[in-house]
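Follow-up to my post from last week.
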Amino acid sequence: TMLGVVTCDAPVAAAVWRPALAAACAASFNQITVDGDTSTNDTVLGLANGAAGGAAIGDPNSPEARALGAALTVLLQGLAKSIAWDGEGATMLLECTARGARSDADARRVARSVVGSSLVKSAMFGHDPNWGRIAAAAGYSGVDYRQEDVRISLGDTELMRGGQPLDFDAAAASAYMKAAAAAHGTVTIEVSIGDGPGVGQAWGCDLSYDYVKINAEYTT
Amino acid sequence: SAASTEQASAGLPGSFDIPAAPILIPEGPWKVIEGGVTAPAGFKAQGMYAGLRAKGDKADLALVVSDTPAVAAGAFTLNVMAAAPVTLCREVLAAHETVRGVVINAGQANAATGAAGDRDARAATAAAADALGGDEASDPFLVMSTGVIGRRVDADALSAALPVLAAGLGAGAGHALRAAVAITTTDLASKSAALEVELAPGRTVRLGGMCKGSGMIHPNMA
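User reply:
Got it. Predicted complex:
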């Protein structure tokens, strides 16, 4: 289960605050996955008390409302990433950025599909730069695109371009993942699927033996 | 360490001894600041052990309270088997634009608990309102639960602890940290963050947050 509470001292109308929280959740908590199981209790609550003073923010299209919404989104992204970082049994945080989609929503679907793939997650645990699993997970996301537009990178290593696998330095790519795991750090995956304006991110973690151990012993 | 230090002075029961997760807020035109839910002005928080967890004495009950009624928003699971606290929060937010605060327990999820679970959730918000001396009808509380599914929360223990917890509320970073620890379950680290942002020249506001989660994580909230 994920729970979140966010507080804010801006004076903001419910007509601004409520859609801002929904949009921020769409780009943060709804973009993380550890094990594909949706909880019965997932909740994010946002409280804004106006203690900072000043005129109330009542127009959702005002520059102040947009700035507040952006700040809310990055705060929730930071918190959401900390959940994926602390995923049960995780040795690393996975961050997938999808680009070139027709919309941000499509890009988010692709990114979440990649970080949610058990095969990608276990490849990451094994420090295997497995571009095929990444490509496959993006391909079943439900987003339509052409194979020949696909480009995939793992950290600084490009694995696939124009839908063609590249002759990359597998040892260096594996070392990148190994170093991230040693530091409980972040592995970045970038997937480009065309030349559309859509960009989206999702976060997950690798799948280790410990995940099964923890959940075999935690009775629900 | 902030939590441990303030715990001693607060004299509240429970262990708070887990590390904090790294701050992972992306860079941008905002400034990451210390603290969590109490970083914005006018908010207080606290955490303590209320005897709700089946094992150990890690803190398991948290309060986040606004000094004045706060405009409230929520995002909730789309799981059909939504827990009693989720159902209650949806009702409260449909009827009220503002709330006074949130009470959160760890140990039992109060999900798949039927009508008894609904009563337990309402008892928790009523006990929070009583402990803070407010009028629940006009300044309601929200409630969240996390832990084992299918088990009821010990409503008596929760209600008995709330006055103690309310008396220990504070606006320090340690108070926020203790609240963040108290909502954890299998988490290996507590999760808090805060930032400051200039909305317009000379107009700065603060946002703070805490969350928990480690497994059963694939949110689909609306």
